[in-house]
Each structure stands twice: as C-alpha cells, then as structure tokens.
Amino acid sequence: MTTSILVVEDDKQIIKYLKSAITSNNMTFFGAQNAKEAIQKIISNHPDIIILDLGLPDLDGQDLIKEIREWSHTPIVVLSAREAEVEKIKALENGADDYITKPFNTGELFARIKVALRHSKKLNSQADSIFKFEYFTLDFASRRVFIENQEVRLTPIEYKLLSILVKNSGKLITRSQLLKEVWGKNFDDHGNHLRVHTQHLREKLGDNPLSPRLIITIPGIGYRFGEG
Amino acid sequence: MKDNRPNPDKLLEMINNDRAVSSRGHLKIFFGASAGVGKTYAMLNEARRLLDEGTDVIIGVVEHHGRKETLDLIEGIPILPLLETNHRGIIVKEFDIDGALKRKPSLILIDEFAHTNAPGSRHPKRWQDVEELIENGIDVYTTLNVQHLESVNDLVAKFTGVWVSETVPDKIFDAADEISLIDIPSDELLKRLAEGKVYIAEGANKRAAENFFKKSNLIALRELALRRTAERVDAQSDELNAALGKNENQLGQKYLVLIGPDPVSETLIRKTKRMANSSKAPWYALNLRTDKSANLDEKAKIRTEKLLRLAEKMGAIIVRINGNNAAKDILEYAEKNGFTRIIVGHKKRSRFLKFLPSLASELVENASGIEINVVNQSNEKFTKQKETKIEHNSLNKIYDYFWSILIILFCTLIGLPFRDIVDANVFTVLFIAGIYVIAARFGIGPSVFSSVVGVGAYNFFFCHPYYTLDFYEQSSRYTFLLMLITSLFVGSMTAKLSRLVKLSRKDEQEAQILYGLTKGLSVARGIQAMAQFTQAHLESATRYKIILAIKTGEKLQFLSTSNIPLNLKEQSTIDWVIKNNQSAGLGTDTSPSAFALYIPLSTEGEIIGVIGFNPNEAQNNISITDIQSFETYASLVASSLARAKRSDEAALTRVDAENEKLRNILLSSLSHDLRTPLTIMNGIASNILKHRKSMPREAVNEIVSLYQQIERLQKFVSDLLRMASLTSGNIKLNQREYSIEEIVGAAIKKIEKQKGKRRILTALSGITPPIYVDGGLIEQVINNLLENAINHTSEDGTIKVNISRKGNNVEVSIIDDGNGINNEIKEVLFEQFKTNAQNKNDRLNSGVGLGLAICKGIIEAHGGIIEASNISDGKGACFSFTLSGVKENGQ
Known about the structure:
The complex is a heterodimer of chains A (228) and B (891).
Chain A: E1 4-8, H1 12-24, E2 28-32, H2 35-45, E3 49-53, H3 61-69, E4 76-80, H4 85-94, E5 98-101, H5 106-124, E6 130-133, E7 136-139, E8 144-147, E9 150-152, H6 156-167, E10 172-174, H7 175-183, H8 193-205, E11 215-218, E12 222-225
Parallel strand pairs in A: 1-2, 1-3, 3-4, 4-5
Antiparallel strand pairs in A: 6-7, 7-8, 8-9, 10-12, 11-12
Chain B: H1 8-23, E1 27-32, H2 39-52, E2 57-61, H3 68-74, E3 83-87, E4 90-94, H4 97-103, E5 107-110, H5 126-135, E6 139-145, H6 153-160, H7 170-175, E7 178-182, H8 186-194, H9 204-212, H10 215-243, E8 255-258, H11 264-279, E9 283-289, H12 291-294, H13 298-313, E10 317-322, H14 326-336, E11 341-347, H15 359-366, E12 371-377, H16 394-415, H17 426-442, H18 444-462, H19 475-523, H20 527-542, E13 544-552, E14 555-560, H21 568-580, E15 584-585, E16 597-603, E17 606-615, H22 624-689, H23 697-727, E18 735-738, H24 740-755, E19 759-765, E20 771-774, H25 775-791, E21 798-806, E22 809-815, H26 823-826, H27 840-846, H28 851-861, E23 865-870, E24 877-884
Parallel strand pairs in B: 1-6, 1-7, 2-5, 5-6, 8-9, 8-11, 9-10, 11-12, 19-21
Antiparallel strand pairs in B: 3-4, 13-14, 13-17, 15-16, 16-17, 18-20, 21-22, 22-24, 23-24
Helix pairs in contact in B: 1-10, 2-3, 14-15, 16-17, 16-18, 17-18, 17-19, 18-19, 19-20, 19-22, 20-22, 22-23, 23-28, 24-25, 25-28
C-alpha cells in the first residue's frame, strides 16, 4: 500500500508543486484548501500523514491541530511561513509532530515526512520492550540503560527523562512537554532542572554536547533523541 | 444595635496612614502649661540622648535666654546658623529653613513652635516651616505652650487678660505624631520663677508677665494643658474605636456656626471648635450674604473673610449662601444638610431696639428639631482689637442723599407746571416713581429719607395752600400717610431687590468668565494659543494681571508675564508652588508679601505649570471669594493645557505606532509573499532534477545553477526579515539557561550538509558557566559565523570552534584558514551589506552581507561583544563573541 499524504494549504501554487513532488515519489496525494475540507478528507480518506499550513482562510492552523488531535493520531507536519519559535512550540504542544519553515526544499520535507511516519508506525505497533540505537540500548522492562553493553546507572529522574525522549525517538519534544511529563503539571523550571539533568544524563551516556548523537538540543524549542 | 465588629478596611487604612506618615518626618511637641515648666530642657535632654546613640541631630533654633542649664545642654549638639535678613535696616535673625532642608539632618530641634517669623520670610509662621521640614522627611522636636493653641487662645486671654497673637492651628497639634506633656506643679513653677529660672521679658512686658504668672492663672493653664493633651489621646482612641466598629459620635452631631463681621464671631468660632472637638462632630462655618451684608464697607468684609479663614484653619468647612430672609434661609440650609446644632451670636442692644426681632431670636422661634445655641457678646475685656463698628463709607453716603434730594427736586419741577390742571393726588405717583429710582440706585437709607422728603415736598408744592406745610382738606392727611407708607414699602422692596440683583450679578459674572474661558480654550489650538487666550481673557475679565508658566521637562517656561518683573522672591515663590503643589503668594500663608497669588496648574496630581494673579496698582489684598474663583479658573486652564499637552504627545506616539504597524504589515506580507513563490520555485527545480537522467547535460547544469540561485535568494529573504526584526528594536529575547556547548553542537549539526569536505574541529577549555540567552538566536549567530567561515575556506579547509571561559564570561571563536579579512573592510565588517568578498565570484557565494550584521545585532541585544581579526601567526580570520555567564549559586 502506498503512503497517502493530505496537504492542507490555501496557496494553489504550493498545492500544485507538492502534488507533483508527492506523486513523483510514489505517494498518494490529497489536497484541502481550508480547515473544513481538511476535516472531511481526513475522515473519508484516512491519510497516513497531514502536511498543514498554519495560515488557513477559515480557521487558525493551531486550532485545527487541536481539533484534529481530539479524534485522530495521524501525524501532522506543520508547514509555516511564520518563523517565530513561539508558533513552532505552540504547534508542537497542540499535537503536531514536526514543523518545517517556508521556504524549504523538497529533500528536507520528505526527510521530515519519513521521520514522522516512522514514529507513528512505531507507536502503532507498540514498540518492543527493548530499544536499540547504534551503541545505545534501553530496556523498558527492566528499566536499564546500556552504552556499548556497559550498564549506565541513572537516577529515577534521569531515567524518566531519557525514557520519554527515547519513546519519542526522532521527534521533537518541547521543554514544557518534557517538564510536564517528568515533573508533573504546572512545574515551573526556575531552577533550570531540565538543563542540569540533561547535562548529567549526557555525561553519563558519554554524549558530547558539541557533537551529540543521542540527546540533541534544539535551541529555543526543546530536545530530540537520535537523528531527525 | 451597635455594630461592634471590627472593620478590616478601616484598620488597614489606619495602618496605611501610619505608613504614609512614615515617609514624612516625625513631629514631637513638648507641650506645657506655660513658660518655665522645662519644655526646652526636656527637649534638649532627649536630643542629647539620641545624639549619643548616633542620631544626626542638629539645633535649628533654641532660645537659651542665657541660662546656664540650657547652655550646658546645648553644648556638643551641632547648631544650624540662623539666617540674617535685613528688614528695613534692622538685622533680623530667623531660622534658616533652606539651610535645614539642604543639610537634611534626621532630627532638628526647633524651639517656640508658635513663633511668628520676620516679614519677608518664606512662611509667616514657624509652624509652617516645621510643616515643610516634616514634608521633606525630617523629624522635628519642638516646644509649645497651651496658650498658643488656636482654640484655647481666647479662653486663656479671658482669664489671664493677656492676649497672645502667636497661635498654632489645632489641626497641626492634633496631627503631631507625639505629644510629650511637660508638667510641674504650680507651686514648683512659682518657686522657679522666684529663683529667676524662668525667662521673663524686660520692660513694660515684664509687668504683664508678672500679672500672668499668678497662681490662679497657672492652675487654670495647667488644667487646660492637661485637658487638651487628654483630648488628643481621646481623639486617637476614637480613631481606633471607629476602626474597631465602636463609634462615639452615634448621634451624628453636626454643627453650624454663623459668621459675620462682628467680633463675637471669633468667640463663636472657638466655642464651636471646642464643642465639636469634645463631641467629635464635624462643623461648618456659614456666612450669609444678604442685602444688608453687601452694604457693609470693605473693612467689615475683610474682617468677615479673616474670620472665615480662622474657622477654616481650625478645621471648619466654609459655606456661603445668598439670601434675604436670614433666619429662614439659614434654617432651610441647616435642615437640608442635617445639622443638629446652630451656634449664633447675639449682641446686646439698646432698650429702644429690643422689641425688634434679632436673628438669634428668630432662629430660636422658627427652628424645629435643631438646637440653637445663642452666645452673648459681652463687653469682653480681651477684645484688645479695635472696636469694630460697621462703618459705612460716609462720604459716598452723603453723595447718595444729595442725589436723592436732587431727584425729588426733579420730580417737583416736572409736576409744577401741571399742578393747577391735574388733581393733586396724581402727583403722589410721580414722587413714588422718583423714590423707586432712588431705592434702586442708592439703597434703603436714601429711599426712606426721600420718602419723608417727598411727602413734605408734595405737601409744600402741590397741596393748597401752596408753599406751606398746612392743608385745607382733611382727606389730604390720609393721602400723605398712604403716600409715605407706599413709598417706604416700594423703596425698601426695590432696595432689597437691587441688592440681590447685584449679588447674583457677581455670581453671574463669574459664570460668564468661566463660560468664556471654556469656550476660548476649547477653540484654541496648541499650548501657546491657549496661554495667550487665558491671559487676554482673564485680564480683561478680572482686572488682574496674569502670569502663566508651563513646565517643560524640569524647566519652567513663562508663556506670559504681563510685563511684571519677576524678581528673586517671585521666582522662589513660584518654585515653591511647583514643588509643593499648593497655592502661595498674595492672600495665602506662604510668602504673602509676593506681588501675586500663584496657583499651581495641576491635573490628577501632576503639575503642569503655575498661574499668577497680580492685582493692579496699590490693591494688595485678595479676598477668599476671589481666590476661590481663581482656583476654579486655574483648574480649568490646567485641564485644558494638560489636554493640549497630551494631544501633542499622542500625535507623536500615533506616528510611531503607525510606522510600527506599517513595518509589521510589510514584514509579514514579505515573509508570506516572498517565501511562498520561492518555495514553489525551489520545489519545481528539485522536481525537475529528479528526471536528470533523461535530460541533456547542459539543461541539468542550468537547472542546478537555477536551484542554487533560488536557495541563495531564500537565504537572503530570511536574513532580510531577521535583520528587519532586529533593527526594529523590539525583538523579544526568549531567554533561558543553556550551556554554550549544546548550542554550538546544535549549530554544527545544522551546517553539516553545507560544510562539504571541510572539517569542523571543536575545542573546549575549562568548564564554562551556563549562559542566559535566547538559544535560537545564538544558534543563528554561530550558524552565520560557520557559514561565513565555510564561504571563505577552500573545499578541504579546516574550521576551528574554540570555546573558553574568560572570568565568568564565555568566549566562542570561529577560526578559518582562508585568506583573512581584507584590511579595507575590517572597520565596516559588521555593517549591513558589507562583505569580505574579494571578487565577484566570491560574492556570488557569500550572500549580500547581512549575516555578520545579524550576528552583531543578536550579540549586542544580549549585552555581549563580537569582534573580528586576522590570525597573527598564519593564515585566516577569527570571529569571536563573548557572553556573560550566569553566576551559579550552589548548583
């Protein structure tokens, strides 16, 4: 079965170009020019992934993400001319899986699409209890972490932090999403717990922040585990 | 039922009041029954103790009268030199208020609170100096004898026979933070007196003083002092009780005292004040303006004003009403406003006038539910002031009567030619008409006078026999009587009416001035035009010269001075007005010897200027009514000027806001309208390249270069937008703690694809402190610098990123092994659109030169420094920036 992609975008030129890019990559293309149409297409066509422009004529893209997330787990990659980080964070927190800023090139777009698809498949198949990434291994069942088969001792918080990142491997997690998951709702990070704990975690995992391979900082937004 | 629950709001308010007071200085009064009880001694003793504890105490004024005990105590306390002023050839030494304000001690000692300053001083009274010191946060210790308290002043005078003119308002005494009662038994005081330990003035005053220090007097004074202190304590506990829900004034007492020009009014004021004090009732002083009062001479009017001011000083609220039927109008006012008691004076009158109703008796007669207190004006011996007769301006009066006779004569002359043609009775109407004119013009006196003269003239000229006062017809007797009654009636009614008209004309005049002012000010555009209009309008309407100054920044700009020379004294008065937001100058208690009355122009607590009213020529007095009108004008002018000022400012900010809006619209439309087509072009180009295998080689090359150019354009657009938002000066830094390594790591990761075969080496020396930055923007800086390095190195070059700690700062250097920076361009490297490209081809790759300008903008927004240099040993350029680290506390 081929992958089907729904593009929600009001600019006809972009739709036209994306359509040709998507079909030439052997994927199925659906287009929607407004939020209403988008919801109909999601319900009737069950796309594998949604590419969503934030500037829509009938509804703010952010609100559309929230609405879709109420009843669908279909991955969403946000396409935006808005460069502000606040917008990106908001989109991610509303439930988008990734974002890409206009102007972008096709290669970049498809790379993001692949990561989002991979991630959603993993979620659907309820990943194995053991996660492996190059020299890194995490055993969810025994809550143990290995580097090159050497066990690394982590504190409960460090483990929790790492396990959340690993579960979402390849996906961008915002700071506040992490804070909420690890420390609970309404936690105020005045003491910079997140920075300090990631730093310790990196030291224990032998991950050099100057050339990170496991925990990657996305300045201004959050963290991601592994390659994007 | 009494509501005894504490009222939290009131308690809070009290606490807040205490706090408000704390920014003011603290006033402590050493209070005694008379001289010689040891107030100064006690004050100095306490000051010494505080001085030893390290408090900054100075002596402002202390009268030692050469006594050794006092001199011993003074020794060691710093003394503020007295200010010497030359008053008409006599050197006068007074307390130096400006010196004290400049010196700003924490505590200053000022003896003799009730002292009157030499003419020309800033304030006429020393207690006003003290007020200003407290206002400025300086604590003051002072001394006061009970006889100098305004409200007991007359009482003391009554039983001691000594009238003191130096008084302190009760509200100042009541507002003092602390009262220390210095009390010694009267016998003790007499003993000290006998030992010569009490200072008594020499000469004629000595006898008076000796008279004063009688045992009976001293006992009475002592009682008075004790009682007054106790009253103050009461007042304080009342405040607390009120806050706690216990209200003493359950009865809702409210007193009204009637004030006229008579000397009894002063007694009334003091009496009412004492009554109001002891029952904690609010009190009002009412001045009724009737046709009779309008007839008073200037002196009586001024006296009334002075009495009203005295009442105001003692805490009364001043009310003026116009009316004709005194008793009725007063009762109506009192009933309408819920007064419970009216205090009225009563003058003993001659036996002849006794049967006429007096105001007091009329009030007693007609009052229902309101208590009337009648105070007799006795022949009090203390009325040392000039006996106050209501004098009419006699010369003018004589003229009035003279004119009345002329009018009667004129009526006679008109009638004479007809006296044999027409019936004599007709001429009565002629005379009544004349009397009507006289009454309207000259008032009641001349009208009564001419009624009598008129009847006489009628008899003399128009009744047979002519030229005698005899008459033939018995009925004429009734004609005369009727004529007299009618003319008296017409005369008095007309006179009353015309008085009322004159009174209301004055009110109307004020309303007219206000109306004109409002109208003119609403039309005038700009502050200058408003000032000119205000000056012209008020000068023509009030016959005062207007001085108008507006505050621009800290400086005062005079918009109109009406050619009045503003000497140093006027200037300092104006400065005082600005500083204190209070009226000063002529007619006030502050610098009353100034040329003009200065009223602050202030709205909502903000002072925008000063308006001065300078009476023409010799007149150097302004009545309270005028001051009140002027204050109304001033507030109107102030709000108009404030409006003008605001609209000027608003116009400026509106332009700014419009610009900002335009910029934002431009930015967002740029970002959408440029990016979208670029994205599409980019996409199409890369789509075409997918089919490169089926395309001729040249076509592929062309499309590849098209694709590269599109990428360049995309980058330029992003740079341009970023630069625009940086230079707009309103970028919001989304700052958090980061370690510099993670940002550098992220930036290197991002540039991975662009670097090609080049190597990027990182070096870290020492442990870096975390930095508090906008991570995304700093990543952008490193990205731009890396890109710049990539553009200036050969395909297989090496780029080094060094991170080091410099003190608590973090320094990041990006070093390439390219050709280095061209010397010509070094200075302007970080400016917009400047590149280090040495040839066209180079420029093609390196963009338009916004990258470094963006770096500079971002680093400087973080308070950091960015520099560029060439490597001293070897080839290449070095770009480095420094950011300050977060001071780590315990982590």
